[in-house]
Amino acid sequence: MIRFEGAAKRHPDGTVAVRGLDLDVPAGRTTVLVGPSGCGKTTILRMVNRMVVPTGGRVLLDGTDVAELPAAQLRRGIGYVIQQAGLFPHRRVIDNVATVPRLLGWDRKRARARAAELLELVGLPPETARRYPAQLSGGQQQRVGVARALAADPPVLLMDEPFSAVDPLVRAGLQEELLRLQAELGKTVLFVTHDIEEAVRLGDRVVVLREHGEIAQLADPHTLLTAPADAGVAAFLGRDRGLRGLGLRPAADVPLAKLEPAYEDWKLTLDQDGRPEHWLRDGRPHPVPVFAPARDTLRAALDAAVLAPSGHAVAVDADGRAIGTASRAAVVAALADEGAQVNHAGR
Ligand SMILES: Nc1ncnc2c1ncn2[C@@H]1O[C@H](COP(=O)(O)OP(=O)(O)OP(=O)(O)O)[C@@H](O)[C@H]1O
Question: Does residue 341 lie within any of the structural domains?
Fold first, then answer.
């Protein structure tokens, strides 16, 4: 666990970057720091690996003040990923990732084997290993950055806006990868972003900061979206926070109706395996919007219900076979169900 105890940073010119932060970052979970530019996010992150030395208070890593640990030993246990990946341009991808194991004294063969394993883990094809960073896309470079940070298997991962330099589609893919990796590896992740969407997607806990590293709210994503602490946090979350909150709740909350031979003027046709084919009206085919209760969110179910020409979203199993339907009214009723469980795993 990482603990900030009144951790403060005042620069020599008098700028107070962080006034005095008290925060516990639990082990094995993802904690996201989010807030406007200049509020002190990067400063807070760098206090952990001592790239910034606090001018007041202290930072404890598993109970030990990081100031008491030799910097090299401290950083061995902490992976660090930054925007633009920060790769060595003149080294091949594989050697970028093998850097830390080599520093730890591993022989070249073992270090490269470990690097190859990590490149696979972060979803890079083997042929990228021999290339130089400039020969990779921005998203691929970020993956290499993550692989490199994981090379020494550190328990702690600091990530400073790691995905902000790539386009939205690539970014969504990288976020998915991080969720998958984190489910597998269970690192203590401290992640900085200025993007609230990214924060609620990735964080088990989200810390909303305002100026001077002051905590405006610390909550799980669902609580944050549904119960912002004050008007300032609500404004920061944006006007569609209610809708986005649906993206955190499982579609499994929607009660399913069994398949009917007809829905007023509409008829649903299935192929021989039971997968939806068309909505038919007057013999004319229309597309069938579907959702998968086992894996999708309430937002996806609502989307399918809104788009369905018949007004009924079709629910499918993992193989795409129709297992029932949900009317718009049924989905809306599920939205209003306050007792519903918040889904963290299926985000
Ligand atoms: N060396 C320095 N000297 C003086 N002020 C500094 C110095 N480094 C940072 N600051 C100031 O400290 C504050 C916090 O900076 P920090 O980089 O932690 O913010 P941030 O929230 O990460 O911002 P961004 O989202 O723009 O990266 C800012 O007001 C910044 O201008």
Answer: no
